[in-house]
Structure formats: C-alpha cells, structure tokens
Amino acid sequence: MNRTLPIIYPINRFKLVLYLLGALLLVAAGILVFYNCLNHQGRYFMGSIELTYILAVLCIVFFGYASILFCSKLFSNKPGIVIDEKGIVENATSVVNGIIPWKDITSVALYKMQSNKFVLIYVHNPEEYIERQKNIIKKKSMQANLKTHGTSIFINTNMLKITDVELALVIKEQLAIRQN
Are 98 and 172 in the same domain? Predict the structure, then answer.
C-alpha cells in the first residue's frame, strides 16, 4: 500500500493523562508514608522505619520524575511517531534521540512484556544510538535492551494512537519500499 508521507501518529493524550494521574497518586502515597514515619504513626514495611523511609523517598523521587516526563509529553506539540522519506522520528518515549534513517534499519519485530507492547527496530549500528543518548538512565536501558534483545531501539506503543502490529506493518512496508 502506497501511503502519503509523512505518516504521523500522535500521542494518546487520554492514556497520558491516566499515567500522569497514577504517578501523582503514587507521589502522594509516598509523601503520606513519609509523613507517617516522621510522626511514628502506622505500620512500617518489614517492621523497619528506616526501610519505610527509604521506600517512601524512592517512591516520591521515581514517580515524581515520571510525573515530570508525563507533563512534558502532555504539553508538547510533537507527534509520537513521524515516518517520512528520511526515516523514523520517535517522540513517544524520547529514548531515541533524533532520526532513525532507513539506511540504518535492518529489520523490525514485535515484543510484548506484560501489558507493554513494543516495536523493536534492528539497526546496523545500535551502539551509535546508545552514544547519542545523554540521559544515563535511558542509556543504561538501551544497553540492557541491546544485550538481551540485540537492539537498542524499542518503541513503546502504549502511549500512541496506533497498535504495535499496525506500526510494525507500516514501518516494514516503508522499509521494503526503500530496500527495493
């Protein structure tokens, strides 16, 4: 099927709002647990006030960071995925910095981990994509993905207005056009 380029898939803002609300609720829960520890109220995790403090702080930091990321995506005008004649630009998770040119892509696959659905993009030079990533957490995630799955590029479709199967088909279709 010949599609008009660019092909743009927006971020699913409804799901993004749900993720944001969930993250904010978990931040609030962390604050509540921390406050209860300060006042020596309630039960402690595994009977340890120190462990409960640590878990509360980790909850606040992790889900606070997630809330910031979700807010930035919510107020961004960038589409989730752009597929054009140059390649693929993934903005849904911002793990991949910049464009993935067609000449780099070797194949596409689907992967599911619990309720998360991913489109895996296999490239000739996965280490270059890891080096482009400045965020240490995202870089470590990409390195782990490369080690376990043979690619550093995972596109999470949970926040997109397209299914993993549909996105993989479109990418494979466009890749086939460029390889012929």
Answer: yes
